[in-house]
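Recap quiz, item 2
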Amino acid sequence: VSSMAAVGVSAKCLDSMGTVNSALATGRAFAGAPLTLRIVAECPVSKARACDLTLPHCTVNTPVFMPVGTQGTMKGITVDQLEALGCQICLGNTYHLGMRPGPELIKKANGLHGFMNWKRNLLTDSGGFQMVSLVELSVVTEEGVRFRSPYDGKEILLTPEESISIQNALGSDIMMQLDDVVSSTVTGPRVEEAMYRSIRWLDRCIKANKNPERQNLFAIIQGGLNADLRKKCLEEMTKRDVPGFAVGGLSGGEEKDDFWKMVTLSTDHLPRVKPRYLMGVGYATDLVVCVALGCDMFDCVFPTRTARFGSALVPWGSLQLKHKQFAKDFQPIDPNCECATCRRYSRAFLHALFKADTAALHHITVHNIAYQLSLMRSVRQSIVEQRFPQFVRSFMARMYNSKEDYPSWAVDALASVNITLD
Amino acid sequence: SACVMKLDVSRVVQGCRLGVLSQLGRNGDRSVEVPGCLLPTRCGSVPHLTHDTLRTLDSLPDATQLTLASLAEHQEVLEELKEGARKFAGLHDTVLYCSLHDPAAPCPAGYVTNKTVSVWGSGGRIELTPSRFMALQAAVKPDWYHSMADGDTRQPGTSRKRARKAVDRSLAFLDECLQLHHRSEELSKAEILGVVEGGDILEERVRSARETAKRPVAGFVLDGFQPCAMSAGVRHALLLAVTAELPDDKPRLLQGVGRPDEVLDCVRAGVDLFEGFFPYEVTERGCALSFSYDFQPDPEREVLERDGALKTEEEAGTREGDAEGRGPGSPFEMNLRDTRYREDLNPVRPGCSCYCCRSHSRAYVHHLLVTNELLAGVLLMLHNLHHYSRFFQALREALQVGRLDCLRRQVLQPCSSAPQGREEA
């Protein structure tokens, strides 16, 4: 474990609530796993919690947003900039990296950490999601996912063993099991088949992991939008001694009312002492609500992708900096933001630069990552200080013009964990 | 305003001037060493870089080049801000020089008239009269800028008549700019440079230099010497004739020349300053500067290098496969897109102290290039700026210690292999 200091939790906060703290668990997820989860504070009202998740490269303060660096790079941001932003864990995509530059070279470069020179934690996905979403004509069988490489046309079979083998070569701190991904809008027997297959594939992944002492393998809860299937999946997967769990198969265009119910059902059945990762969630409101529902970790391409389209995230929504209205607006993106972009550059300059140079994208990307990370630090701080429900109320009031604009699913989801918004 | 900027030439070696331009900037407390290059920008921003990434470079050029081409479309915005391009673009503390064109962007011929010149911004062509040109400079507020000029003599076969017209127009533009300059409050602390034109016609070049030097200018911009306009031999002869007409105590900035061999050639003809577009162009073609500027090679190493003992197998291969391995660029750079670097875990240039070389491998940069990742431009720009800036530093040091020939030999030795494990100069 590196000397990385925990961000956001001062000793004073912990002392002032010693009674709460004494009841909290600290412990390894299971014997030998390179992961410990210390629950620093739990919200007395909702299911929100603040944890210190210690991984091989440093401790991660949760709730955490993990930016996505698909191809071994964070979209024009250097690893030093990412570290300066306070990022403790980011993602790499196994599918992309397995194709280019390939696991052999990355292994030779001392893993993805060495290849991209990132000193903190990495999480890699299984590659299955991209196969289904990016590659036409992929076929799922019990063996694995068969598809044609978009680069050289060769037929490739991605099995659970192969996915773990690539992720072992990448050397990520957290690996994800290969799951059978079906779109969250699909219903019927295919969802059930995928859920059971994901359980079988989890067992094959666990068996295939060559570095269980260095690399954590997370299970992914499937089951679509069907509560019974989700429960069955939870029941089976929590029997396995994995160091952490992800909630998968959501955030794929389903109704938000269905989405949050599946999330809260999952956290109800997941063990308290293990980290919970909600995949593909990154909008600010979704993050705050899903923290209330008990999730610890999140990832999404949205903040970095939207930056490249000129959209800067702010506590009251977003600013489309390409719009003419910002041409003479000499304020920073967010006057209260302390990121490198807001300390130096105005909306007007970014508007002008957008047409001239890629540095404009880098400035907005830096800001958007800073926004996501600082949002999560504020969330954590409020949990530690036992004022999370108040935080949620002021967050919502700032994000939306009026109570009428609050998304009803968010109001319902928060009410389900005793946070009322009036 | 009287010219405050001061050039002290401490040494002249084989025609090369070593010196310091001082009393520059708002408070007159900045200086620029010559021979030197400028930091390139687009819309006031060093291409690909943010303040944080730029800050990783320990040796930046002393002065930064802005271009009206990329700022003209923002005139109203700058006028409303009232604090100039430095504040607008959040630039670091640097001397600002403002040119008309962007040397790294195309500039179509045939758009200069007796009353106007044109620049091309992101929204298309913008036509500038001398008064609009000066209003723009007043909005940009550079520390130095050059007067409006007719540099439209770059096409091969430009006639004597056209060259004469370019000189006449440029002198007329200069007189108009000088008048407006002296009346301008915003530009009271700025220095104006005159532009020497004349295509490849010797008499016109001499006339342009002589006439420009009669005006109260702080220095000279030598325009129309782009490699596309004339051969190196013609350029050298013309530059010698031009600089012979110019006063010794004022700086000469050459536009459109940036290749290291050409820089060395032009410095010998009395040029002091160069634009910084070359490292940017190298970056844009996915290449990294890799020429040696080590003017004090370790004698033992020299012997070993001659014997090929220090070359890795792959570097020897580089030499054989030169043509296809080098790809689109000059012999001073390596093409990191080339598949030979796919598994090469060495730094881009072993021994280089730039952020890219300290942090990443050739294989990583190759990967970023083939996957079209934005970080490729960032890392290559950092390396290329560092390398180019260090080259100029080495040039000044070589002049100081009388080893210019040694430096020239190193630079001209085409794409010499990198000395392993030490920073040059």
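Residues 1-25 of chain A have pLDDT under 50 and may be disordered.
The interface with chain B takes residues 71-81, 84, 96, 100-101, 105, 108-109, 115-117, 327-328, 330, 340-341, 344-346, 348-349, 352-353, 355-363, 366 of chain A (CB under 8 Å).
End of item.
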